[in-house]
Write a structure and sequence with these properties.
Largest sheet: none
Oligomer: single chain
Mean pLDDT: 89
CATH topology: ABC transporter involved in vitamin B12 uptake, BtuC
Strand content: under 5%
Order of helices and strands: HHHHHHHHHHHHHHH
Distance between the termini: 31 Å
Number of strands: 0
Number of domains: 1
CATH class: Mainly Alpha
CATH architecture: Orthogonal Bundle
Low-confidence stretches: 1-9
Number of helices: 15
Radius of gyration: 20 Å
């Protein structure tokens, strides 16, 4: 079988891949009181997908991915406050704004590796945070950006107080983002990106444009992160400095490691488990909920390096051997 044929075969959607969407649809009807949390989880899944594209498949380690999430969030918020609250236009503006920032910063930081790369990603996030904090007339500074409203989607579906429209809106955008990332991963571009991660020297030796591929992947990842940020702004109708914080970047990595890095669906499982556990533990143990999250992460890292999906895969393999 040729490589092209292999990509086509791999790209076929298997029946099990529809399970997350069936589960999301069931949650809409079975848990109507948790739709606001559900919208946030769906948004974080898009954010995690954006990071998985460069970390899981490209091997690009970053601690400052919130810079692009926050850029998309602020662009959408400023657009809604100053010009128009049209939701699709806001999503497009947030995506393009973060994508452009990702392109310009990626051209610089991707010339470095290791610790230097990590420090530069942190520096970019710090700069974005400081700009948002200082430009109070534009961003609201420490008080945040609010006082705007989002128009009905396509002029038909208004955002309601119960979060029904927001949940379905996030679900549709997540589906489009998943489709894009999946197509990229199961394409020649995705294969070359994985090759760069596995053996950078060998990819250089065969003449692959390593630097260009990394920049393109980083730009797409930043754009997806901006899309998630814009989505959060529209569903909450508020933007705060926390969208540019280091804590958010750290939580994102924890979510991805928890679910499974480089698995696509690890980006689905990780945010779901992390945020549901956070919500439960914060209600039951408001002073010690971080301990529960930390213990869960330690157990996963020590006993399941493939994350929760790794545990599931190991269980399925044992069942098959037993049968």
């Amino acid at each position: 079988m040729t490589h092209a044929g292999g990509y086509i075969a791999d790209a076929r959607i298997r029946a099990a891949e529809w399970l997350p969407w069936v589960f999301a649809a069931l949650c809409y009807f079975a848990a109507p009181s948790y739709l606001t949390l559900g919208s946030y989880i769906l948004t974080m899944i898009i954010f995690a997908l954006s990071l998985d594209l460069i970390l899981g498949y490209g091997g690009i380690i970053t601690l400052g991915h919130s810079a692009y999430f926050g850029t998309g969030a602020y662009v959408a918020g400023i657009l809604a406050l100053r010009l128009t609250g049209e939701p699709l236009l806001g999503l497009l503006a947030g995506t393009l704004g973060a994508g452009l920032l990702g392109l310009f910063t990626g051209l610089v930081i991707l010339r470095t590796r290791g610790l230097a790369l990590l420090m530069l990603t942190l520096a970019i996030t710090s700069l974005c945070y400081e700009v948002a904090n200082r430009a109070t007339r534009l961003t609201g500074g420490a008080d945040g950006l609010g006082g705007f409203s989002i128009r009905p989607i396509l002029g038909l579906f208004s955002f309601d107080m119960f979060g029904k429209t927001a949940y379905l809106y996030c679900l549709v955008i997540l589906f489009a983002s998943w489709w894009l990332v999946r197509r990229l991963v199961y394409s020649p571009f995705g294969a070359s990106l994985t090759g760069v991660r596995e053996n950078n020297v060998r990819m250089h030796a065969i003449g692959a444009p390593v630097y260009q591929r990394r920049v393109v992947a980083y730009t797409i990842s930043a754009a997806l992160a901006g899309l998630a940020g814009a989505l959060l702004t529209q569903t909450t109708q508020f933007v705060g400095l926390n969208v540019l914080g280091f804590e958010l970047s750290g939580e994102l990595i924890v979510m991805l490691v928890l679910g499974g890095v480089g698995r696509i669906y690890g980006a689905f499982v990780g945010p779901l488990v992390y945020l549901v556990a956070q919500d439960y533990l914060a209600k039951r143990f408001p002073e010690y909920w971080y301990f529960g999250i930390g213990a869960m992460l330690v157990l996963v890292v020590m006993f399941a390096r493939g994350g929760i999906l790794g545990i599931i895969d190991a269980g399925i393999a044992r069942l098959r051997r037993g049968s």
